[in-house]
Amino acid sequence: MENTHNLKISQANGTPEPKINIAEKVVIDLEALSRSGNPHPEYDPGVVIHYLLNVEGIKYEVNKPIQSGLDILVLTGKDPKRFRIVQIINQNGKVISRSIDADEKVDLRTFGIEKFLTEPVPVTFFIDKKAYYTIEPCLSVRQILVEHAKVDPELKTLAVKKGGVFIQYEKLDEIICLEQNARFTLFDNTPTTIS
Length: 195
Description:
single chain; 2 domains; three-stranded mixed sheet; 3 helices
């Protein structure tokens, strides 16, 4: 549906008045459409379609039907290294949720998209060769030793290798902000007996 408006301009040379085509803008509220159970409406070419997304209870208007997980996450202002998007879809009364990676594309024209949430990205870290997971971006040395490695901090010391040298964490209350796939090792603090 195209609106054509005549723009009256006084022209001294007698040329016809120009016609200006102004595209109609339609905003589709994805949550309301999903809950209605109706499919996406068909529009004539030239109609500019915007999409109203519900992301954690806040409505955002976007003008492209294809959005990446990162595009949607940026709307929230959350750190993409620490959070990811969860898409909530209503398919015939059954609610389905799925995590969306930052580079994954979401087609907003897909039937049933209801809303989006965010969730913390689990951080994977290693102690020796064993993998551990947490949604906390920062942990104390004590938390890593006791809650994850399940060792006595009196008997073991946490260390990290940097530049070919092991650096030991001596203070149990020291906070370590974890990088994805950080690698630690444990040193044994028990005295060595000499026979």
